[in-house]
Specification:
homodimer, about 260 residues, alpha+beta, SSo0622-like fold, four-stranded antiparallel beta sheet, about 35% helix, elongated, S-adenosyl-L-methionine (chains A, B)
Chain lengths: ~260, ~260
């Protein structure tokens, strides 16, 4: 079986199966996004989480524990209020931790070039920790990840270590991060739509490929017009939240600008 | 120029340049690791941070700010004590945040297969957020990243929102994470050394390739003997800190086990 046929078979198999997550359905905030990808022949999503605030109880003294020993005290994909967290914290017996986790999306791609296009759009939309995995059988996967998290220990062996005022302050930050995450998803959706439309046009009119060579959809447009229409992609200049900044402690020999 | 010659040129150029980081040198805990990679013809490192505890002052109300507006109150690659953080916090005027950031390493790879091998070893060693980037000119980069962070808001507009006792508790956790990060680096170093030795033997005796087909160095060995010698790679079974667990909220259609 050739690679394209094999990819089609994987896709059909994957999309026909039941959603195996505990929730059993795609999060509201990424439904459209997941649809956009699954409608295209070159992609399908294998897992997604739109972003969430979670409170978990588990490892004593900050040690990570096996997932099965963790207790999920609270999970929400919507902004969260102090009273909900305070109520959930009453059930904590170990070291409770509050986390904000931004969008995580796994997309299987037909070929490396498809993954490169999606990867470039993800990076430009602010999902800077995204990366490609290529398996030994050629399965190509893009994991979309952001740098935009929060992980805050709240209790020690069941004893709350912070005040209610602090939890209120923390939730304001977590809710803002959730809002920012939503904006990034929207930006990602719009940028991807444009990139895919452009790709379709290029495929329909192959001659355009030559003209378009220096402006391909997977090029990071560093000098993009900041006044561009809504849903614009981020550039290096307006989003400095990059793990590779020249912060103290990061030893940089040289980082190719356009690798 | 063929691709291998071009890669050699990039490598020579990169390694001959001065270290552009503020620190100006490679972190002690990754010196050996960086050397191991740079000695191999198929790799060179472009940036590295062994892992650090940082205290930064910046965005009001938890908003991320441009890097140039952030003030670094404290940066350390060693375990940290409460008094150092309390002293640094006195200088905070905005919203101070304490972070633990694990190893970040960027490695340029000669070809995709070299990146796949390194990626697989990184994942097996616990660096589960690692990913490959392939640029339009074919530059192939592996970013090594862990899921193992901490990000804790401490003050609001210069006002400390937590107690000294909490900071003490928090630093114990941050220091433990730093210790765990060190162990992962060691494990990564040992696993990589073995994978590279194996690859060298395979290259010297190409016939072995056939025998070795089902046990290649970039295969995730899910059923590895847990009693194996020190520096063993992690398996799915003994490290559940995977972003793709079936936690509530992650919608999973199917996640190919062996993609």
């Amino acid at each position: 079986m050739d690679h394209t046929a094999e990819f089609r078979r994987w896709k059909a198999q994957c999309l026909s199966k039941a959603d195996l997550s505990r929730k059993g359905s795609v999060d509201e905030d990424v439904v459209e996004f997941v649809q956009l990808l699954n409608e295209r022949e070159q992609y399908f999503t294998t897992s997604s989480c739109a972003g969430r605030i979670i409170l978990l109880d588990g490892g004593i003294n900050g040690f990570e524990v096996q997932k099965q020993n963790r207790c999920w005290l609270l999970v929400t994909h919507k902004p969260c209020v102090k009273d909900d967290v305070m109520a959930a914290l009453k059930k904590a017996t170990g070291d409770a931790i509050l986390k904000f986790e931004p969008l995580v999306l796994h997309v299987q791609c037909r070929q490396l070039l498809d993954a490169q296009i999606l990867h470039s759009v993800a990076i430009d939309s602010g999902f800077r920790n995204s990366g490609i995995t290529v398996g030994k059988r050629g399965k190509t996967m893009l994991a979309v990840r952001s740098t935009h998290g929060l992980e805050v220990p709240l209790s020690n062996k069941g004893k709350l270590m912070v005040t209610e005022e602090y939890i209120d302050f923390l939730l304001k930050i977590a809710n803002q991060k959730m809002e920012e995450n939503k904006k990034r998803i929207e930006r990602f959706y719009n940028c991807l739509q444009r990139a895919l439309e452009k790709e379709t046009i290029t495929n329909l009119h192959p001659k355009e490929k030559i003209k378009d060579k220096n402006n391909s959809s997977y090029t990071r447009k560093k000098k993009r017009n900041p006044e561009e229409a809504h849903g614009k992609c981020l550039t290096e200049e307006n989003d400095k939240e990059c793990e590779n900044d020249d912060d103290p402690g990061i030893s940089v020999s040289i980082f190719p600008e356009d690798y």
